[in-house]
Amino acid sequence: MQHATHLQSASPITERGELFSVLLRLHPVEAGWVSPSSGSQAHAAFLDIVQQNDPALAEQLHQPNQRRPFTVGLLQGFNHLPAAQLDEAIAKNQKVQVLPGQVYWLRVTMLDSRIFGTFIQHLITKPRTLIIRLGEARFEVSRLIGSPEPGSAANPWTAYSSFAELQHGAAALGKVDETIARTCPCL
C-alpha cells in the first residue's frame, strides 16, 4: 500500500494555496434521529462523497498521522428546539428528531483545490439526488452556497480566499492592533 504525503496536485491554483468554505442546505428525507454533537458522522459523510468520486484521494485522506486539509462542522439548524433542550442534547450526546420540512446546514472548509474540486463535482453532477446520512437520518442537499451574496451578510460562513490574501489582511489587522495598543492606556 502506498502512503501519500501530499494531497495537492501540481496545478498553479493549488500552489497559490486555496481556501474554500461552503454551506450545504439539508432537508430530512423522512423522520429520523441525529445527535447534534456528533461531528464524526458529518466527517464520515464528507469522506463518503470524496470516496464516490476519487477513491485514491479518499484513501489519502484516511491515512493515519497525515494532515487533514478540511474541516466539517457540526450540523446546524436545530431552531425548532428550545435552547435548553439543545444544550442538554449536546452535553449528553443525545439524539434529537429531525422531520421533513425542517432546514439544516452543514459547513465544509477545504484547504486544497483537489478536495474542493472532487467534492463540488459530486454535488454538481448529482443535484437533488444526493443523500447524506448523518446517524440514523437521511438528508437531501437542496442548495450549495459557496460565497456570500454581494452586499449581504446573510451567509458570512462561506468564502473563497488564498493564503496570500489572508496574509495581506492579517498584516493590515496587525497594523490596526499596533495603533490601538499605542493609543489605548488599557492595554
Task: Summarize the SSE layout with pairings.
Blueprint: H1 12-16, E1 18-28, E2 32-34, H2 39-53, H3 55-62, E3 70-72, H4 83-91, E4 96-98, E5 104-110, H5 113-125, E6 131-134, E7 137-145, E8 159-162, H6 163-183
Antiparallel strand pairs: 1-5, 1-7, 1-8, 2-4, 3-5, 6-7
Helix pairs in contact: 2-3, 2-5
Structural commentary:
It is a single chain. It is built from six helices and eight strands; from the N terminus they run αββααβαββαβββα. The chain has helices at 12-16, 39-53, 55-62, 83-91, 113-125, 163-183, and strands at residues 18-28, 32-34, 70-72, 96-98, 104-110, 131-134, 137-145, 159-162. A hairpin with a 2-residue loop joins strand 6 and strand 7. The longest helix has 21 residues, at 163-183.
Taken from the alpha-carbon principal axes, the silhouette is globular
Helix content: 25-40%
| CATH fold topology | Alpha-Beta Plaits
Structure classification: alpha+beta
Task: Give the number of DSSP strands.
Answer: 8
Order of helices and strands: HEEHHEHEEHEEEH
Spans with pLDDT under 50 lasting ≥5 residues?
A: 1-16, 183-187
The N- and C-terminal alpha carbons lie at a distance of: 55 Å
Q: What CATH first level would be assigned?
A: Alpha Beta
Number of helices: 6
- Average pLDDT works out at 78
**Strand content bin:** 15-25%
Biggest β-sheet description = 6 strands, antiparallel
The CATH architecture name reads 2-Layer Sandwich
As a whole number of angstroms, the C-alpha radius of gyration is 19 Å
The domain tally reads: 1
